[in-house]
């Protein structure tokens, strides 16, 4: 029986993982708190840990885990910037992830955010519940004919681009590794980053967080954008320098923003903070803008995605227990 310490557990996580066979092959120890150096000792007795985006697996945390006998880290997400991979490699720890649990889930949420923000559906919903049926202030724009810029054409970026093509938008994209055959087949045009910034009416982020992409959108890049541009980010919060974004919103240069991720979301997103005094002044400022829409990192949250996360993670844990090769595309060390 493989014992796994499962951190940052939510109700939907437990339900999903407990429904994936084999129920008798893995012993799940579910913990609601996050994994970091000061909670790592709670993995005592486990050979593997299962973690999410806000768990902090830095060198001190990994060292404690290794001393406890943990040899496997299973990320139930695609991103891995919260793990010190070099330290894990030095400690001879296996690290795996779920690289593509449901690109459709994130892409569909991306477009849903834009539609809600643009057509002010969230504001209309609240008005009607108060018996206010006036239409003042609810004017949006057609997506058809607009220029949509996709930054990053991995699986999610490609699906998002294809959905926007279905709206009859003009879609351009930039990526360090362009897929020209896909672009030609789908009516998408690859352009330079600068051209994308200067021509897009709608800009959607689908890039990973790396040292090169951190604060990809900042004061300098905001200046290059068309006045009134709409920005959607369902990728990584640190792709955007939030204070520069606020300045661009205040000046009216950015026309609207929809975010499913936030630069300093750790300790805030995924939690109920409704009874707390606001802990983050920058986030509180963002929430005051009528043309800003924020969801709490929920783009991935569909039944299909949760099932795929559970399936891939469980299969890799089984393979670890049997000393077999991990699933293709999931290995990080």
CATH topology of the largest domain: Rossmann fold
**Looking across the biggest beta sheet, what order are the strands in?**
8-7-6-9-10-11-12
The averaged pLDDT comes out at 95
Given as residue ranges, the uncertain stretches (5+ residues, pLDDT < 50) are: none
What is the tally of helical segments? 12
At the first level of CATH, the class of the largest domain is Alpha Beta
Shape: globular
Q: What helical percentage do the residues reach? A: 25-40%
Cα Rg:
21 Å
- Whole-number total of structural domains: 2
Major sheet summary line: 7 strands, parallel
Number of strands: 12
SSE sequence, one letter per element: EHEEHEHEHHEHEHEHEHEHEHEH
For this entry, what is the oligomeric state of its chains? Answer: single chain
Q: Mind telling me the CATH superfamily name of the largest domain?
A: NAD(P)-binding Rossmann-like Domain
Give the percentage of residues in beta strands: 15-25%
**Architecture per CATH nomenclature, i.e. the level-2 architecture of the largest domain:** 3-Layer(aba) Sandwich
Structural class by secondary-structure content: alpha/beta
Q: Give the N-terminus to C-terminus distance in angstroms.
A: 24 Å
């Amino acid at each position: 029986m493989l014992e796994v310490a499962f951190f940052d557990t939510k109700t939907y996580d437990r339900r999903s993982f407990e429904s994936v066979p084999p129920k008798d092959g893995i012993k799940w120890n579910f913990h609601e708190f996050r994994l970091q150096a000061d909670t790592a000792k709670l993995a005592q007795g486990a050979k593997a840990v299962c973690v999410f985006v806000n768990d902090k697996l830095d060198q001190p945390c990994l060292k404690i885990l290794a001393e406890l006998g943990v040899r496997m880290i299973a990320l139930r997400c695609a991103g891995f910037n919260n793990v010190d991979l070099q330290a894990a490699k030095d400690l001879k720890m296996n690290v795996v992830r779920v690289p593509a649990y449901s690109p459709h889930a994130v892409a569909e949420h991306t477009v849903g955010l834009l539609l809600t923000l643009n057509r002010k559906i969230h504001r209309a919903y609240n008005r009607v519940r108060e018996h206010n049926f006036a239409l003042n202030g609810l004017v949006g724009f057609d997506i058809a004919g607009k220029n949509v810029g996709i930054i990053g054409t991995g699986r999610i970026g490609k699906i998002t681009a294809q959905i926007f093509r279905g709206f009859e938008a003009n879609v351009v994209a930039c990526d360090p590794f362009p897929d020209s055959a896909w672009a030609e087949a789908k009516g998408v045009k690859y352009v330079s980053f600068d051209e994308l910034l200067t021509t897009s009416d709608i800009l959607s982020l689908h890039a990973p967080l790396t040292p090169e992409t951190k604060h990809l959108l900042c004061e300098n890049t905001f200046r290059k954008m068309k006045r009134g541009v709409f920005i959607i980010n369902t990728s990584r919060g640190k792709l955007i320098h939030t204070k520069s974004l606020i300045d661009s919103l205040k000046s009216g240069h950015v026309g609207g923003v929809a975010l499913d991720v936030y630069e300093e979301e750790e300790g805030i997103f995924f939690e109920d903070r409704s009874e707390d005094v606001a802990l983050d002044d920058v986030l509180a400022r963002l929430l005051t803008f009528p043309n800003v829409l924020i969801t709490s990192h929920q783009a991935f949250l569909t039944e299909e995605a949760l099932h795929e996360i559970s399936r891939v993670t469980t299969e890799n844990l089984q393979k670890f227990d049997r000393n077999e090769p991990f699933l293709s595309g999931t290995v990080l060390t």
